[in-house]
Amino acid sequence: TGELEPAIAEVEILPDGTAAGTHGQHTTFFPVDIGNGVIRLVEPDGQEIRSEPLCLSYWDGTNYVVIAGLTNSVGELVSSNQVLYPDAFGKGASLLYTYTRAGLEQDVVLEQQPPTPQSLGLNEDTARLQVMTEFFNAPQPAVKARTVSTTAGEVEDDSLTFGTMSMVSGKAFVLGKAAPSVGIERRWVTDDGRQILIEEVPVTSINDDLANLPMGRTSSRKHNSRRYVVSRTPVFPPQRHWRVSERHPARIARTAQASRGLVLDYNIVNGNLTNYVFRGDSTYYVSGSVNLFGGTFEGGTVIKFAPSGPWNWYPTGPTINLQDGYQYNWLVGEDRPVIMTAKDDNTIGNEISGSSGTPSGYYGFPALTISAAQPPIISHFRISWAEQAISVFNTTNTFYDGQFVNCLNGITGGYSAADFRNVLFANVYTNFDNFAYGSMDVQNATFKGSASLLGEIGQPGFSISLTNCILANVTNIGTGTIAGAYNGFYNSPVFGSGLTNQFYPFQTVGGGSYYLTNGLSNAFRGAGTTNIDPVLLADLQGRTTYGPFVCDETNISSLVTLNPYAARDTNSTVNGTVDLGWHYEPIDFAFGGCSLKSNLTVTAGTAVGCFDDSGYGISLGNGAVLALNGTAMQPCLFAFADMIQEGNGNWTGGEGGGNSGAFYFTGSVQSSPPLVSSTFTKYMADNYRAFFDSTSWGAGIFKNCEFYNITASAYKLNYLTFTNCLFFRASLSFWDTYVLNFTNENCTYYDGQLALARISGAGGDSSSF
Prior knowledge:
The chain is mainly beta. The chain is 2% helix and 44% strand.
């Protein structure tokens, strides 16, 4: 008692997964995820200071530009006293904290070249690279201001004192692995009650070091297009609503070296959420139990789940549980499904930190738990790699246009009734399990590659009826009361009335493996009854069992007109029959890496798909014209194939490439730019770019069009015109670097982002809004 102990600069991982340095006069706590927590420093006198980095920015003495905001990054203990948050500001910009006996150091480690100030329209001679950090619950520090001379001119350099600790000039930017640290200056700013520390370094003093770094990659499907907004006043990102939870979705881990894995923006959701909105332009990570007390699921939402826990007769999570007594909205549309998949699935949505890229085992247990007495009608969805996809109990449920892919169990529950309409069960080991004293009515479903249609538990009081369904390579039917009519069977036990096909009934086109084969050998075409759910019957008339015409790495050098190619199942209005099984949303023509050198016309009602083996759908060269001529009653559609097809490993090779998007302008002649002319066309994506250029000439005219969850960027186009268009959670960035004329009339923007940048010296621009 009373003996002095030496201070030790050491950080330890705590039982709850966070980390802390506790063996010094001061104590510092590090969150698991820097994007969802704060740095807590407790001074020797007990005063606590909480802080969180905000962004990286430039300032040239006149204008500010934010170049990177803080994103989610799970910490790594890279030495005995250092915690690294890799790629905390996006690819190539990490945060490194060093716990010392004297205090705490926060360094930004740049491993890629950021955009130059000149490219953003700033004065490179006076520009400073800044890191902004927000402080919470901190007392106003004692500020001692001084002015220092730097290569960028006179710069304010404040020394700050918080109680018994001080913050003075030090190092802020570490460039590369072996480069020396660089001195910085600090300024303390208060703005509308917020307390911001700005640390900055003249760009001219680090230009040589920056030039030695690798070039940063351009925006891709997994990285939203960069949105640089020039402002005369400091731009502080919105305050983050951090919270410290007793449960953490991950743990700070020890690693031998700093991880350089790609970390993209996603949202970690766990615990209790009230009226939560799963946004169509976002990716969510669920690692535990989420109890939802009312909420909204938007089409385009991607929700990824951690691996499921061990079986102990009860689900062990992670799961999203729809609690009883609350309102739930399922706001989806054609080609805008809600997608639930594995943490390790990188084929769609943003990549989760630590993802292997190859799903192994099962995730989500169950992905969706429905205990609400009045659940929403759930439609347009895909659940993949779940140990248990959906669990229902004591409810009445309706599911339309859904896909269950590579799951252990599909639907489980008790004392429930459920209707399934146009549903695909692909490689689901057991489709329906553990139902007691419930009923199921299934129409136009496809079951392929199942060990058992029905499970063995609690089945005597359960009944199921199948109509217009296909069972292919289903080993067992299982127990329970089952009835069926107008069904098709291939290599499966037969029940009720129906047809047996002697040939495999499906063909694969791109990422879709369950289009019906053509020809007389397939008895399942036109074999179904129209005496089904009238809502389903109307739905099928706009859907198809035919695959698209694929244009892969094709040069289009002559005039081409595209009409609907994949026949819609309108047989109900012709001869009173429908095709059996699962029906896809139509894709008439699928483009990947194609080069347009002439005119391409898409007629009303035609659906065009894009896949990214080559990073883009169609590139438009000099003088090329792409015309999408939809009408109000028959709009055209331009969607990305992974929003429609269930995914099978095809059409995923180009993801993350530098050139990624639907239309890629490559015009090299200003007087003859390529043109996209689009009327009454719907664009659907999961944050994939609708169009972009690489400082190339081009033009776009969009009238009466709708853009959902897309990004778009332009840097050197001749002109862009939007008239009476809807942008739903779209992220747009337009630069008039050269002569871009940007016109926007009678358009509606719902959420999302719009960034416009006018570069000084650009001639000929006449932008209007």
